[in-house]
Design brief:
Layout (H helix, E strand, L loop, with lengths): L1 H21 L3 E7 L4 E4 L2 E5 L2 E4 L7 E6 L6 E5 L8 E7 L6 E9 L4 E4 L5 E2 L2 E7 L1 E8 L6 E7 L4 E7 L7 E8 L4 E4 L2 E5 L2 E6 L2 E8 L6 E7 L4 E7 L9 E8 L4 E4 L2 E5 L6 E6 L2 E8 L6 E7 L4 E7 L10 E8 L4 E4 L2 E5 L2 E6 L2 E8 L6 E7 L4 E7 L3 H4 L6 H15 L5
Parallel strand pairs: 1-7, 8-14, 15-21, 22-28, 29-35
Antiparallel strand pairs: 1-4, 2-3, 2-5, 5-6, 8-11, 9-10, 9-12, 12-13, 15-18, 16-17, 16-19, 19-20, 22-25, 23-24, 23-26, 26-27, 29-32, 30-31, 30-33, 33-34
Length: 422
């Protein structure tokens, strides 16, 4: 009898858990790909595919799947499976993007930005599909100190960088604003940009500023520029009258063409910005346009008082084109004047395009630093970037050596006082 009682007790002990499992429901959790770690709350339940007994929870069941290289998958399932019921839970895991996005802005704008010393763009600029990880971001703007920083690009996210540029010592800036905007600005007779923008690397002192825009009267002002300071010019441009001179607005396809008016060079057309020639006296004028690897173009325009004459030129490719290259010159510090083959072409960072194949000379000049001269050679179609570190004048000065005069003086004394022993 005792043996029978013991058997019954043991049988009940064995069967009771089984019957409890039969009364439970289950979540059958699978994922693509398989092998994801499954969590309910903070408790690890196994790797997919896995069958998990359900718990009766009033707020539902939160299932989370984690797998290296994939985004975390989460789902909250309301209710509880009925006893013996199997509820399938299928997860499609999304790979973490190996790329991110980098948005670069600067104050002031229009700075040259490079990533990992690659090709440059002008701020504001958005780099898409940048590999994740740490990248070296460098910004250069004439008249400002270089801005160099390491930036971490996160996978699948947008990383934003705003660089506040610092004005370089030995130069000031002009912040020129006009109504309407997009007027051409000439500082001491040199085209320096358009409004509304900041013109950097302006030598301190009294500067002549000329603002021109087709259809409006020219504006002139003498502005005093201070070292490491920003001088502001804000003016309202007045529309021209019928008694005024006229203007010629020139667009070329392709851009980058040199424009001559009555035999005098007047500027170069740019992408997205026509070349505006203002204060043109009424009458007939000859417009001559030239660009490498395209046929020259010449035409006569008749300018009337107070009117704007548009000139659109589609240049024909030359039947005998010459392959050309491109030279990108950077300097540390930036803002150095560039003389290419003895001709002034701009300031660093600067791009010289096109450059004919062969050997060329260039020279970099910046106040307070030693002039740098070098030769370079380009082949057809080559894009060459040259980075130069300028040497301060203090480092390049020769230290006077008084040793020679002292030796001569000593020898003279020996000859006078000890003639018999020398």
């Amino acid at each position: 009898m005792l043996y029978l009682l013991a058997f019954c007790v043991c049988t009940c002990c064995i069967l009771s858990p089984v019957s409890a499992e039969e009364r439970a429901g289950y979540f059958e959790v699978t994922s693509v790909p398989e092998g994801g770690d499954v969590f309910i709350g903070s408790q690890f339940m196994g790797e997919t595919p896995v069958l998990i007994p359900a718990r009766n929870q009033t707020n539902g069941t939160q299932i989370r799947i984690m797998m290296q290289g994939f985004e975390i998958w989460e789902q909250n399932i309301a209710g509880t499976p009925a006893p013996g019921q199997i509820v399938p839970v299928k997860a499609s895991l999304v790979p973490i993007s190996p790329f991110g996005t980098l948005e670069v802005t600067s104050s002031p704008p229009d700075a040259l930005v490079t990533i990992d010393n690659g090709m440059g763009q002008m701020t504001p600029w958005t780099y898409r599909d940048i590999s994740t990880g740490t990248h070296l971001v460098s910004l250069f703007l004439s008249g400002f100190e270089p801005y160099v920083v390491n930036v971490d690009v996160l996978p699948g996210q947008v990383t934003r960088l705003n660089a506040n540029m610092t004005v370089r010592s030995g130069a000031g800036s002009l912040q020129v604003s006009t109504t309407p905007g997009s007027a051409s600005v000439f500082v001491d007779g040199v085209f320096s940009g358009t409004t509304n923008s900041v013109i950097a690397n302006v030598p301190p002192g009294r500067r002549h500023v000329l603002i021109t825009k087709a259809g409006y009267e020219d504006y002139e002002e003498w502005a005093y520029v201070s070292d490491r300071q920003v001088t502001t010019i804000d003016t309202l441009l007045n529309p021209v009258t019928k008694a005024s001179d006229g203007a010629v607005v020139i667009i070329t396809d392709p851009p980058g063409a040199s424009v001559f008016l009555d035999g005098q060079f007047r500027g170069v057309t740019e992408t997205g910005r026509p070349l505006e020639l203002t204060s043109i006296s009424p009458g007939s004028h000859t417009v001559y346009v030239s660009i490498r690897n395209f046929e020259d173009h010449s035409e006569t325009v008749v300018v009337k008082p107070g009117e704007v004459i548009p000139v659109s030129v589609n240049l024909n490719p030359s039947p005998m084109p010459q392959d050309s290259g491109k030279l990108i010159l950077n300097s540390e510090p930036a803002g150095a004047e560039i003389y290419f083959d003895d001709s002034f072409v701009g300031v660093t960072p600067g791009t010289i395009d096109p450059v004919t194949p062969g050997k060329h000379s260039y020279r970099l000049i910046l106040a307070g630093y030693k002039d740098y001269s070098s030769m370079t050679e380009l082949i057809s179609g080559q894009v060459l970037q040259v980075n130069t570190v300028l040497i301060p004048e203090e480092d390049g000065k020769e230290i006077p050596c008084p040793a020679v005069p002292v030796i001569i003086a000593v020898l003279a004394c020996l000859l006078v006082f000890m003639p018999g022993r020398i």
